[in-house]
Batch of 2 targets.
Target 1
Amino acid sequence: MYEIRDPIHRTIPFSEREKRVIDHPYVQRLRQVRQLGLAYTVYPGATHDRFSHALGAMHVAGRMWARMVETSGELLRAHFSDDDLGYFRQILRFSGLMHDLGHPPFSHVSEKFMPPFNALDLPKAWLVTPKQDRQASHEDYSVLLIAALAADDTAPLSHDEAQDVASLVHHGVMPSAAWQKRFGENEGSKGIHRLLRSLISGELDCDRMDYLLRDAYYTGVAYGTHDMEHLIANLGVVDQPDRGLVRTIDSTAVRAFEDFLLSRYHMFLQVYLHKTTLTFDHFLEQALAEGEFELKIPGDAKGYARLRDSTMIERLFTAAEDERNVWSRRLVNRQPGKLIYKSTNSKQDEKELMAEVIDALKAAGVPYFEVTSHQYLSKSLPSVEGEGGPSSMLVRRKMFGRYVFEPIERFSALLTKYNESIDMTHLFVLPEHYAMAKSVIEKFAR
Amino acid sequence: MYEIRDPIHRTIPFSEREKRVIDHPYVQRLRQVRQLGLAYTVYPGATHDRFSHALGAMHVAGRMWARMVETSGELLRAHFSDDDLGYFRQILRFSGLMHDLGHPPFSHVSEKFMPPFNALDLPKAWLVTPKQDRQASHEDYSVLLIAALAADDTAPLSHDEAQDVASLVHHGVMPSAAWQKRFGENEGSKGIHRLLRSLISGELDCDRMDYLLRDAYYTGVAYGTHDMEHLIANLGVVDQPDRGLVRTIDSTAVRAFEDFLLSRYHMFLQVYLHKTTLTFDHFLEQALAEGEFELKIPGDAKGYARLRDSTMIERLFTAAEDERNVWSRRLVNRQPGKLIYKSTNSKQDEKELMAEVIDALKAAGVPYFEVTSHQYLSKSLPSVEGEGGPSSMLVRRKMFGRYVFEPIERFSALLTKYNESIDMTHLFVLPEHYAMAKSVIEKFAR
Amino acid sequence: MYEIRDPIHRTIPFSEREKRVIDHPYVQRLRQVRQLGLAYTVYPGATHDRFSHALGAMHVAGRMWARMVETSGELLRAHFSDDDLGYFRQILRFSGLMHDLGHPPFSHVSEKFMPPFNALDLPKAWLVTPKQDRQASHEDYSVLLIAALAADDTAPLSHDEAQDVASLVHHGVMPSAAWQKRFGENEGSKGIHRLLRSLISGELDCDRMDYLLRDAYYTGVAYGTHDMEHLIANLGVVDQPDRGLVRTIDSTAVRAFEDFLLSRYHMFLQVYLHKTTLTFDHFLEQALAEGEFELKIPGDAKGYARLRDSTMIERLFTAAEDERNVWSRRLVNRQPGKLIYKSTNSKQDEKELMAEVIDALKAAGVPYFEVTSHQYLSKSLPSVEGEGGPSSMLVRRKMFGRYVFEPIERFSALLTKYNESIDMTHLFVLPEHYAMAKSVIEKFAR
Amino acid sequence: MYEIRDPIHRTIPFSEREKRVIDHPYVQRLRQVRQLGLAYTVYPGATHDRFSHALGAMHVAGRMWARMVETSGELLRAHFSDDDLGYFRQILRFSGLMHDLGHPPFSHVSEKFMPPFNALDLPKAWLVTPKQDRQASHEDYSVLLIAALAADDTAPLSHDEAQDVASLVHHGVMPSAAWQKRFGENEGSKGIHRLLRSLISGELDCDRMDYLLRDAYYTGVAYGTHDMEHLIANLGVVDQPDRGLVRTIDSTAVRAFEDFLLSRYHMFLQVYLHKTTLTFDHFLEQALAEGEFELKIPGDAKGYARLRDSTMIERLFTAAEDERNVWSRRLVNRQPGKLIYKSTNSKQDEKELMAEVIDALKAAGVPYFEVTSHQYLSKSLPSVEGEGGPSSMLVRRKMFGRYVFEPIERFSALLTKYNESIDMTHLFVLPEHYAMAKSVIEKFAR
């Protein structure tokens, strides 16, 4: 057994075999990619990298599963052997570790410069839809790197395991043939794949639990904290007649769950969508779009793994030495845009005011730029009818001496409320245009 | 300057004069009264007393005011002298210190055995309504003890100061004649009394800020934590044409305020209304109601100050040695009632089910007892039209280069949502009746 | 399984059987006895009771053992069955829970009023020396209550278990005959009893680990914190040719261990021997010695269990209403003595100065009082030759590819340094004599 | 006023003028240099940069000073005007902010490749000894960058201020002529420069206080924590007949100070001198020494400011793609050396054993490498006779009604003990030589 110190979980233990995967260059690369991109320009403490988060997610995934086996061991053992349960545990931990493998440096910006999906060297046999007319995403690259890592002799990960891991990480990847054979026809294991996936990417998953605590810790913002111990302690599994195995959370932990949701909401508003980070992201995007420096994202694993934060940082600072590269210079010299107005797109009056302000700026010839952010607060709602819906977690409560199971969204008014997307538009002008803008917008001031 | 160590605020400094008030037996008595009554029977860590809370509230009141003078000094200095501002500070700190002076031991229960309001030896001249046909409350006793403390030669508190302190602590007490003369006719000081009172007893006051942090710390429940530093840092004052001076909070702190509200909500559900505490409170009340031991609450300050937790604890344990005192015995021997059903009174279906369950128990001859809890989550809503309404705190935000001030309830959807009363009924049976009850309620299980 | 919330360990789980012991009145009594006696008069947060500490010690004892079984399972399983290991675990947890059962209210003071050892209703067969000409101690009362609890039909603790528990808690109690038979003749189990006892009462035991963290948490003093997680994680067991089974700690945790020792040292100087607490302890002792109120400590379990903090608090406040009871009044009215000088008895110059100061006070006829404190920082040194010596914990480190085991005192210079007793004398005068004293001591001022 | 969020100090406020210094590229460069170099390869959380530490040190310097003005205002105001006190505050904050400006990326290694002192473009008039035959250090570069920053039109720092700041940061820099004129001839201000410098670089300075808390926070190691609040709260100033103004700490904080020292000691042993970081440092040094990639350290400010971590990271990874660059590859592929033996140089038996082991490895032809570390735990001892000696902080305690001041080293046995240098040698072999080495060293195993 090995152990690594971590400020969030104190100590993260891992096995010899896991060590070999962790030490692989594709995982180690995450040390060179910051978790929050340019957020450190606003929250100087936020220098943490994706590697710590990957270890943390691995750790949390394992703990969630261990707890479910503890609380619902009888039910699980009725359908699965100890080997099966051990396999799930290992796959979950690997999925936690590798779920973000495909993040490029400064993900929010770089993703916009990714090649087409079809240009990626993906294992086609794993995919539900092998050809897709769309731009690649970092999730696709995670699959690419997981497959490449397994293909590497040095990494102790079989092809089947890699596919099963990928299937928990990416909704477009099917479980391996071996999985299908082992669990596919067993009526008792119905729902198990969806259940495991919900621990990696669901309403209450290892990804969110770790990153909220971690981002809060490193930014120094208290909002991200939540009672992870209590949430994990109250997990379980139930077998539902129609749907098979479904994850449960005890009713005593519903308040902790609401707190968890609110943490996420507040982190979005205060940190992830902070106005200054948004303008710097915009500058970086402009610098790339206008060719101030180059970012070529290769379609093969080896080439992709060469992309590090330092690669872009060096190019950016070099570009900024040339006076013509105005966007790079703004970013390097820390000259953020000035926020003029911020509208939530769902609020009609704000949308209308935004349009009026923009018209006024246009009429006065004041240059401006907009940043539109679109974030799903919940991973579930968009596919309510599908398997990832919120009902993928049921609340267990005792009533009149018996346990009843209810969809969490019926139990928590907050969930319904925050289960929306956050659509927001920030309107900025460059600092040198602010004086002009000011005279225009003053008339909107009440 | 003196200093005292405190786990919540680390160090609480106070002056020589304040020390003399703090050392007065009426304040020291709070060391002998636990903050959360019988909650320690469920949360063993919750042994903290009202004395620490009093010091903490004093400290927070001073900090809030200091910050407001810092951020809005220009405005305040336009209307008040440095002496005035210093007086407000001192009155606020004393109010924080003494706001809970009148709590009897095991307040929730004992208050039900208080004498009529008119039996109290109160300074009638202070009161808006000197005679009232109702039972006295702990707030009335706070006024009684503040007045008596000021009347004591050893305490360095003038009669006028004491009245002004009482007027911040109790809504039925008017400020002193000296206050009226000093600030009453000055147009610029309009609203100052309401503003100061909102720091002692308002939506975001020294009382709540301290007790939420303290109760969370001592129970070990994470929910009560909130970002007090951020909340205080964003306080200010605005002068509104119609209403005079009003407290403000910057828009960047609205999320922290929502978190604060939610903390309170969760503390209610998880701690203050915990089912086991509720049954023990009920047992204590029954023991008193049936005369298993005596609780006589005197109407004079000196007599009242003899009431300590230990007084009741000793009587309770002595009573419990006699087999006939069944309620005392249940409490001492830790035999809580069994919860049968819990209904939120605002939910019609829950209320109806409750009625059905009760009917069934009655029909089957199963003894039961109900505990109905009624808590205002917000101190403001009931008097929206009045001065204590939520609009007593305005959100300040910059829009188009100018500050605008908006009522916080329009700004925060959460506030509206949680600004309700919590009405709840818990239905219990005694342990020895549970077997009977079980067969009755099983038919309600879905 | 049951769970209880605790601010130090978050959640403390326990079994149905343990619940029945925890709910026994002799354990519940600890809720009515504060852990730090009168320290709350100086550190107002320090209201925690011995019950929380008992739960915490139970929890830590179980965790230490679980870790040792984890790291040294092979060695332990070679000598013991799973039943044996489970028995040790249960006995350890019960010992943690009940080790302080015999503490009277305000222990430091009350112990001085205990009856002779021979007056106690102890199970003589358990004792190494059944008759002893000395005053009883709270440890003796712990044995008395453990035996009485086991004799009670309602508590699920056998007579043999109770004796084994008592043998871990009290050095004068032998393990049961059943224990002797089961483990006494087995060469492989040599040292096991000493090893288990070191977890309850040794250099690094469940008692100290819990109370340092707990006292630090409740007083708000940072010094008591230490890295319990790291300390537990590095525990193990080794089989030494001559001594049998001995506890080990890995060399990487020696720094954490030094930090733990220093924490203890600092807590003594800052909290446990705080000058104000010492004078109040002195006042309480005087009040009892001069019969201002009564404290009769019975020799039987049932009578002893009636002693609560509230018993003494009530008597104290009642006594203080009578003007003649000066000591009670000083305590209730918070008039601590004034510290004149503090000497460490091992420092010759300080001892000499103390003698001179006392002579001068005497000569001038100024009344004074001394409080002499005597505390062993380490439980081991006094019996270096015996089994409890510091070598009862060996440091394990890897050297040249092999593990070597060394006595911890050779490894840590700090341990040697702090492994002394703290002998201290505080010299006080009553406040009303301070003016007189001042003119006398001024000449000692440099 | 501006504010920045920081996980250690929660909120760090700064003025408009300070903002302009903070935003200068020479200060912003610290964002691109990690505080602990390669330590993140062992403690993945340790990604924090020197920028946060610079802000933190600025903040702590200001707080220490503010407290000293609070506790010793009368004394200070007798000698200095409010303008003087304000100037000291500003100079202290700037010194905290800029004290580490000259750190190159991966300081421990890069410093060895620095040019000669005389090649630096330093303001000669500032220096006590303008020409020196030695290699430049990062402290020299701090002076270089402070001077260059002041020379830059955009930064609001006068030449004199810059020199005064440099004189607090670097022992070889004199205060400005203006300073000499203003304070040099005033008898009452004797010692003030030494006193201010002790807050930047002394036994208890803003640098150490911030970095210990910060490094502990980011590594997740508890040892670095100490009670900064208590330490600051107990600072003061005394005027000594012979030495002028000297900093004091109250005797009640001596325990906290010991805890602070021990924290530092433990951080060295556990973090700063961790064996794995040492081997990676060694590999980086070898890669540079053997020219696997280039590091040229310019002697001018502008050129120097182009050095970032990313510069070296990019070169390192590029180098590692070539099979011949073995040191770069070991580092990138995470193949640390294997520790054979670690000796403390002050322990004769360890030194001798080390020599024997090395002889044995040599005899057997096993390649090895040594890393010798030399760290002063205390900045004071080496120059006991000089002004920086430990007596630069006096302990204030009340004795017989009067304050006495004693050198802290006489007060604290711990200080004496830990006031030594840590000299340590680690002996490693490369992983591929470990099998050979093992057979050699086995004979040393006891």
Note: The beta strands of chain D are 2-6, 10-14, 235-240, 244-250, 338-344, 369-376, 393-399, 402-407, 421-429.
Target 2
Amino acid sequence: MDSKSQTEILNAVDDLFDAETQFLSELTSHPSTRGREQSAQDFMASELTQRGYKVDRWQIDVDDIRHLPGFSPVIGNYEDAVNVVGTHRSATRNGRSLILNGHIDVVPEGPLDMWDTPPYDPRVDDGWMYGRGAGDMKAGLASNLFALDALRRCGFAPAADVFFQSVVEEECTGNGALACLQRGYTAEAALIPEPFAESLITAQVGVLWFQLHLKGLPTHVAYAGSGSNGIEAAIPLLAALHEMEDRWNADDAKHPDYAHVHHPLNLNVGKIQGGDWASSVPAWSVLDLRMGLYPGQSIPEAKAEIEAVVMEAARASDFLRNNLPEIVYHGFEAEGYALSEDSSTTAQQAIGTLESAHTAVTGTALDRGPTTATTDARFFGLYADTPALVYGPRAEAIHGFNERVDLDSVRRVTQTTALFIADWCGLETV
Amino acid sequence: MDSKSQTEILNAVDDLFDAETQFLSELTSHPSTRGREQSAQDFMASELTQRGYKVDRWQIDVDDIRHLPGFSPVIGNYEDAVNVVGTHRSATRNGRSLILNGHIDVVPEGPLDMWDTPPYDPRVDDGWMYGRGAGDMKAGLASNLFALDALRRCGFAPAADVFFQSVVEEECTGNGALACLQRGYTAEAALIPEPFAESLITAQVGVLWFQLHLKGLPTHVAYAGSGSNGIEAAIPLLAALHEMEDRWNADDAKHPDYAHVHHPLNLNVGKIQGGDWASSVPAWSVLDLRMGLYPGQSIPEAKAEIEAVVMEAARASDFLRNNLPEIVYHGFEAEGYALSEDSSTTAQQAIGTLESAHTAVTGTALDRGPTTATTDARFFGLYADTPALVYGPRAEAIHGFNERVDLDSVRRVTQTTALFIADWCGLETV
């Protein structure tokens, strides 16, 4: 690409950035937690249609995907699980095809009183946009869309097919991205602008979600000694699971990509509910846990170890020995994925193309590193032989209160994305 | 009372016992958990009206009672909190007046799949009636009512005023019994047939309910190390509270009535809720706890010690030190009560009268002892100078699954109650 075109493209992103910020604000105002993604997907579909993309919008059918590798057990049902894909068909098809992927779902906002301002009433302050999902990852959806807009403003379109994906379920299963694969959407590379501060993710962990269902022996608290507390029963089990977590994080257990990461695999007790009455010894509790896995680590083996650890700890309790906990898997059964292990020419070219674009925009080399989170990249990388570049803006407090994204960073990522598309796909005139 | 009258009364209870069992079954079928007592109270009011008692039925007004000793902070509101009192006015008033008290509220039934048969579909098997509340304490309400019925069947009525009380809120505050006091219902003794296996309760513990509201520092679990888990934060606080519990249960700390009771004061973690998402470090949890107190133990001092223990444990955590837990009191602020400490003639006479009746029915001496639970007896004993006899049938699994009451025991308690009324109040002909 000549430097004049490059400058024009960067300027077009700048020219459109107020509109992009407005778009991001509107998208963030939709409270698209699991099961409530519809209005946000309506908005996305309408924006894609207005721009002339061919829009494919469908409800995920579990029967279409449950047999596929990478499928995770469904939580609830998929009555409201709708994916949106907008397709650009190139007239010339001279370049390499591309998937621009982002997820529309956000995690719950938690207690409202812990937010300084309402989570779905986005505001901009000192260069940051605040709101649930602003960073994770509606800014990425915005940058994907406005990178294409910027090319068009310059009179260009990608000289290859581009699939713009707005998927559900990234935060709990990944089945939204899997359903896109199943529906036939493939390309020579994928870009996922998850909020990792303009660095390229070289490896991501796997994630396993599981529930512990514990029983108690309920009695009137007057006879608490004859009962068994179904809430406190969790304490030794959690201690045993944290010991397992320590073993998995030991230096000699680490995957090479994580050799210098302090504690890559986190066990999280994310949710708990138990008991019905302060003066009754509780009969039950349910805990929702999340455990990280290394790339290449077997999910069946991880499950077997978790089960062994929980059951061994349970057998140390007189009561739990005869009332063993139940372990229920639903949600993430996500394998880890390492782009670093993809030695294909396509992967090297995609990374090189991204690095050139990043350097052209920022004047710096491209930082690279592993993440201790998962993303939908695994579907492209592991199950479709497609290198997936995870590269997006800087955000803070994702999954927390006062989540925010750095708008200057969003602008740079949009510019980098536009240059990447121009280089990877090539350009044709509109 | 002559032995012929006594035999007639005992036979009358036998004759009516099928009807009493039927009544108990119907009463147990009403799921009268907190806020849902209305249909059970409708049934009680209708049964009292049919029998010719003057029925007083009123919604508790918190403003009437909040200033009174023994008041406990309200959970929710009292829109559905209705007491029922049926009054027998004696024509002769030769005897001593009496309150027959029972509570209509039951504790939540918990997960239905842990019951062998549905909790509000009572059944009789091998001499036991099963159902939530069958023992605690609808059998007591039945025995109070049918003891009076048996006297009437013999052509008698009590020769003193008798107040039949069916109160709400026993299981969480006691404000139902308090509202009866405030409304002017007093008598020379009270009988409360709580299910303590035909023994007389000489002392009962106090109960304090409190909530721990814990905060966490939520982040994406990928960065769990930088967050602070608002669920697991509870673990060291519970450990510290259990140490306090051990101190309070030490031999030299015990109230004399509990000198030979192994562990009179139980701390119970009855309920917990926390977190919103398996992959988010949880920002919050709320635990509902119950702690027992000795008769005479000061509630303000108990609160101060609990607060000191919780805060000291919290200060040992880097995160909690700057985000101290909040302790919220709602529900029970119940003082302990010891009938054994009531040296009045009235108390001695009431106990003697009960013992005679018990022996006449069972042929055995009256067992006496302390309980590690609380009852509404404290309102009569502590705040109305009225000895309160807690004496009722044998039940099992109260507050648990498959709660059941021994129907032979219900029959004996009904007989003892009828003889007690006859002796305490005296008899007049209808």
Note: Residues 200 and 368 of chain B are 5 Å apart (CA to CA).
